[in-house]
Amino acid sequence: MAPPYSLVYNILEKYIFNLHLKENNYKYIIVPNILNFKSFINSGQIPKFIKKLFIIRAGNKIKYLIPTSEVSLINFMIKKKIKSNYIPIKLFSKTECYRNEQLNYGAMNKNIIKQKQFNKLELMQFVDNKNSYRYLKELVKIVEKIIKNFKINYRIIELSKNNLSYISSKTFDLEVWIPSLNNFCEVSSCSNTENYQSIRTSIKYIKLNKNIEYFSIINGSGLAIGRFFLSLIEKYELKYIFKNILKKYKIF
Asked: Which residues form the Aminoacyl-tRNA synthetase class II (G/ P/ S/T) domain (predicted)?
């Protein structure tokens, strides 16, 4: 990506980053992009991503590039036991993601829509079980607000049970309109995995009555920058983006 598009892309990413940090009160965590196989087992991403992982071999050691920093954030919290007065714990990361996608012909497989490497901000909350679905709705609203700020056409889809990942109890996909595709494209998927991941990784919280429970874990893309950027530049001219959008939100 070359100027001036690369500049707009970078400014957009910084705006969303600062939004999560300052307005949404998430704590920024720098996480590794290379993990061992056990890390993927811990987060429940195997077998989902087993055919899409990029493998790194160094001598007898084998490591893997992350397909999403959800894996890294889960393992960052592994075996932690936290007092309930610190709930909710809100973390986010900004990483490159790597997926060995098998691309076919067609518009939905071109360029920025499906990539083997892409940028993504990942949001994660560790919450009490009683209020987990309320926190899921709040997460969806956070991503929705970003899209609304730029007046991009979008829709929210609640996945049916048949389409849910086996680790998720409820998932909402947020999709934006891409004019050149004449179609909507997913920019965020927000899920409640309840305590499935926390049991696998022994992430617990101590209640006021001293009882110990496993966290419910909420995660979502906040959001896939490339796809959102594409919807933005297809709707607006670059001059309009600079003068009317970036300045309005004091991004530039």
From this structure: 61-236
